[in-house]
Write a structure and sequence with these properties.
Layout: H1 4-63, H2 76-83, E1 86-90, E2 104-105, E3 119-123, E4 132-141, E5 144-154, H3 155-206, H4 220-270, H5 276-308, E6 312-319, H6 320-337, E7 341-346, E8 351-354, H7 356-373, E9 379-387, E10 390-397, H8 404-407, H9 424-434, E11 438-444, E12 448-456, E13 466-469
Parallel strand pairs: 1-2, 6-13, 7-9
Antiparallel strand pairs: 1-5, 3-4, 4-5, 6-8, 9-10, 10-12, 11-12
Helix pairs in contact: 1-3, 3-4, 4-5, 5-9, 6-7, 7-9
């Protein structure tokens, strides 16, 4: 009973049975009311018709002075066969010496026959033990009632019609429940089968196996769920691969400067380096590698803050020309050392309201990525421009370029096609969004890439992080 494949058809069947019972109850009640009203209508029609016959006969008898005139005689059994109901008379003898032509006679107190009105009532006739539904209609001479005709039918006849309907509804309900059960079982299998497949796939994903089969032709929302589940499994697999690559990259990035630092410090401690110039070079190397470690740790901390939206964006006036000059000076020595043609092209001198340190961090990350991608002897261009109410800082390189299928992935954390940890561009993209801007990429394989930071001149959009003002 705990399985979905059992509970689901039972729920379907229970709902159908409940709906059937409610429908049957309402139908029986409506039919019972209809049968009752139909019987009374028929009795009223028959009582009125017979009463009119007797009214005509009585009027003819009292109005005829001929000795040969006789009152018409009606055979009660014939009238009852013709009308299909029982007929009774209430009142005095209308034809003295003639009887009442065979009609059953009811006591005067049965109804108020002198009122001249039709009445509907229930009673038990003296010649029966059953309850009857009855309708009376007056026999009139002029405007005066001289008696009443009562048309009656057993209530059991109405109940019998209802019971007949109930039997048929029960048989139809049993057949319908069996048919509905088969349909519910079939439909539940169609619904449950992909759910069970998704459950098995989820178990495999929980065990770390992301290469799972999901239902391909599931109906409706299940099909959408299957598609999204497959995409989720693929992304989890990719995330695990990226995490593994990231750990390897970070381990390598950490080990390289630590090895250099340890080697130089050991040499200095053991007195291997005696030349003051070599000693100074060793200390400069230690300082450079320590700075490299600091940048790596800073990138990891920045990424963690970006993921939890706990980074801070300050607001201040930023001289973009000075900022670009600082970024250029930072990488000019590396460009000279590697014979890279490093050019700056300043076409505007805008001052914007933003976070200068964050903007410099973004530009620095773009330049770092460009220098990693550009081979020795290549070219890197840093450009500043202002167009259409925004400021553009572009970094263009002559590296290998990026294919279109890799451009979107390039801004994801831990993804890098040019070495490094792959954190710089991810951080740059998130920070640019926090500053109300964006980063655009155009690239051609074999030619190079162009990254463009676009920032608004006015106040940047406020992110969901803490915002301060210097």
């Amino acid at each position: 009973m705990g399985s979905l494949r059992v509970r689901l058809p039972l729920v379907f069947l229970g709902g159908i049975v409940l709906a059937g019972v409610l429908t049957a109850a309402i139908s029986i009640r409506l039919f019972q009311s209809f049968a009752h009203d139909s019987t009374l209508s028929n009795l009223s029609r028959e009582a009125q018709g017979v009463a009119q016959l007797y009214s005509y006969a009585v009027n003819q008898s009292y109005g005829n002075k001929s000795d040969r005139a006789k009152p018409p005689v009606y055979t009660a059994s014939s009238l009852e066969r013709a009308t299909g109901v029982r007929l009774y008379f209430v009142g005095p003898n209308l034809f003295p010496g003639q009887g009442i032509t065979g009609l059953r006679v009811l006591p005067f107190k049965t109804i108020d026959w002198t009122s001249g009105r039709s009445e509907t009532f229930e009673f038990t006739p003296p010649d029966s033990h059953k309850r009857f539904l009855a309708v009376s209609d007056p026999i009139l001479v002029g405007d005066h009632a001289v008696g009443a005709i009562v048309a009656a039918a057993p209530k059991a006849n109405v109940s019998h019609r209802v019971y007949s309907l109930v039997r048929r509804l029960v048989l139809a309900g049993i057949f319908g429940a069996l048919l509905a059960g088969l349909i519910a079982w079939y439909l539940s299998l169609r619904i449950v089968r992909p759910v069970l497949q998704l459950s098995d796939a989820a178990d495999e994903v929980a065990r770390g196996n992301y290469d799972v089969d999901v239902p391909q032709r599931a109906p409706g929302e299940l099909g959408h769920l299957s598609t999204r589940f497959g995409e989720m499994a693929n992304r989890l697999a990719e995330a695990e691969r990226i995490e593994r690559n990231f750990l390897m990259s970070v381990s390598h990035e950490l080990r390289t400067p630590l090895t250099a630092i340890r080697g130089h410090v050991s040499a200095l401690l053991e007195g291997v380096v005696e030349d003051p110039e070599l000693e100074r070079l060793s200390l400069e190397t230690v300082e450079a590698e320590a700075s490299r470690l600091e940048r790596l740790v800073g990138d990891i901390i920045d990424l963690a803050k970006l993921d939890t939206h706990r980074f801070t964006v300050m607001r201040e006036e930023v001289d973009m020309e000075q900022l670009v000059e600082r970024a250029y000076e930072t990488y000019r020595e590396e460009a000279r050392r590697r014979s890279i043609d490093f050019q700056r092209d300043v076409n505007a001198s805008p001052v914007i309201e933003s976070d200068g340190d964050r903007v410099l961090q973004i530009v620095g990350n773009l330049l770092s990525n460009a220098f990693r991608a550009t081979p020795d002897g290549g070219r890197v261009t840093l450009e500043l421009a202002q167009r259409n109410g925004s400021v553009q800082v572009s970094v263009e390189d002559t590296g290998p370029g990026i294919s279109p299928d890799k451009q979107e992935r390039l801004f994801r954390p831990f993804v890098s096609d040019s070495g490094g940890t792959g954190l710089g561009l991810a951080i740059a993209k998130e920070l640019s969004g926090a500053l109300g801007g964006k980063i655009e990429l155009t690239s051609e394989v074999g030619v190079g890439s162009r990254f463009e930071l676009v920032l608004p001149v006015g106040t940047p959009a406020q992110p969901a992080s803490a915002v301060g003002k210097r």
